[in-house]
Amino acid sequence: MTSEIELSQSFKAYDVRGIVGESITAESVEAVGAAFVDVLGLAGATVLVGGDMRPSSPEFADAFARGATYRGANVRMLGLVSTDELYFACGTLRAAGVVFTASHNPAAYNGMKMSLAGAVPVSSDTGLYEIRDLAQTYLDEGLPVSGDAPAGTVDSTDVLADYAAYLRSLVDLGGIRPLKVVVDAGNGMAGLTTPAVLGDTLLPALPLEIVPLYFELDGTFPNHPANPLEPENLRDLQAAVLAHGADIGLAFDGDADRCFVIDERGEPVSPSAVTALVARREIARARAAGEETPVVIHNLITSRAVPELVLREGGRPVVTRVGHSFIKAVMAAEGAVFGGEHSAHYYFRDFFNADTGMLAAMHVLAALGGQDRALGDLAAEYEPYFSSGEINSEVRDKDAAVAHVLDACLGQDVTVESMDGTTVAAVDGSFWFNLRPSNTEPFLRYNGEARDPETMERVRDQVLKIVRSNA
C-alpha cells in the first residue's frame, strides 16, 4: 500500500518543512523517527527530541519518539526548546537529536531540524535524503517487525538553565553599563529563552532592563510573522525602541536561532555589521589565548567590510556559499572561531560550530555596554558601504537573465565569479553585485553594495531592469 504522503515535498537540502496535515503528519513523522534511528545507527543510543511553540509540535515530538523507540533508541524529551537549545543539548550531551520547528514560516507549517552528536547538521550530504527514502518505504510498507531487539525507553530533561549558564560563561555582561533593551520575540521561542539568558528568572540579574514585546508563546503568530528579515515585521520593535527611549532593540525569528538588531534611532543594524563587530571580539579573544591567525567565515554576499576588518584585526577571512550546512562544514574544516551570514545566522566555535542568535545578541550588548557611544555611532564603524539588501525578481529563465546581465557588463572593468550564483565586481572596488537563483522558488536574488549610495542605486536599477525584462 502506497502512502498519500510524499516526503519529497517536505524534505529540503538542510531540513524538513511542510504544511501540517498535508505534507507533514504524525504518521509521516513516526516513520521519520524510525528511519532516523536506522540510517544513523542509533539503536541503543540516546536521541534528543524537542519542539517549538507551534500547536502541532508536541504531537509530532511524541510521534517521532514512538518511531525512534520502536527501532531501539532511548529518547530523551526536551520539551519546549529553541533550535539553538537543541544544538546546545546535542553538543553537551553528545547525542543526536531533532527539534520540531518551521522557523520563520507561517503558522500552517511545521518541520524538523536534525543534528548528529556534537551538533553536526544532518543535511542532504550527511544522511537526510537517506532518512527520507527509508521513511517513505516505512510509510508505504509499514514499519519492519522489530524482532528480538528491545524497544527503547523514554525519559525527559530540561536544558534551559544549563543553556543559559553556558551562554553567560561565553560573554560576561556583568560589568557593562546599564542598558534598556527592547526584545521582540514574535511569539516565538525567544519568549522563553530571553528571560532565562538575559533576565533573572534562572540566573542573577544583569545590568539590563528588558522591555518585552510578544513574549507569549503562540505558534499562530497573532501579532506579526516571526520573520525579522522582512522589514514590515520590525516596525513594532522600531516603534517600541523609540517609545521607550531604549538603547537597542533585538528581534528573533520563530525558533530563535537568528537575531536582528535595531539601534537607538529605530534603524536596523545590518547583519554584516553585526558579523564584523562580533568577528573583532572573537579574533581579539582568540589571539589573546595564543591563536596566531584566527579564521572567520563569511558567505559571499556579506559586506566586503567583513573580510577587510578580519584582515586588519589579524585574522584570516574565508568565504563560502550561502547556507548553514556549508558554513558549518567550513567552520569545522578550518577550525574557525566565528562565522556570519547576511541572513543573521551567526556561528561560533565555542557553540559547537552551530548558529545561535542569542549569543550574537550578547556580543552586541557587551560591545555596546562596554563603551559610552550610542549603538548607531558604534555600528557606523562597521558599515562603510551602501547595500541594496536582498531583492527578489520572479524570472522564468534565470540563466538567460544572468547571461543578458553579463552581456551588458562586457567592456567594463569588472571581474566575474561563479562560486554561488554570479558575482560581478568592479576592479576599482567601487561596487559589486551577486545574482543567485533560488533553489526552491522561481526567484533570482540580487544583492549589491557600493562605496556611495548613488553608485549602489545606479547599478541596482540597471541590473534589475535587465533581469526583469526576462520575466
TrEMBL record:
Keywords: Isomerase, Magnesium, Metal-binding, Phosphoprotein. InterPro entries: A-D-PHexomutase_a/b/a-I, A-D-PHexomutase_a/b/a-I/II/III, A-D-PHexomutase_a/b/a-II, A-D-PHexomutase_a/b/a-III, A-D-PHexomutase_C, A-D-PHexomutase_C_sf, Alpha-D-phosphohexomutase_SF. Residues 390-465 form the Alpha-D-phosphohexomutase C-terminal domain. Residues 9-133, 162-266, 274-385 form the Alpha-D-phosphohexomutase alpha/beta/alpha domain. The keyword Magnesium applies. Pfam families: PGM_PMM_I (PF02878), PGM_PMM_II (PF02879), PGM_PMM_III (PF02880), PGM_PMM_IV (PF00408). Its cofactor is Mg(2+). SUPFAM superfamilies: Phosphoglucomutase, C-terminal domain, Phosphoglucomutase, first 3 domains. Belongs to the phosphohexose mutase family. This is Phosphomannomutase/phosphoglucomutase.
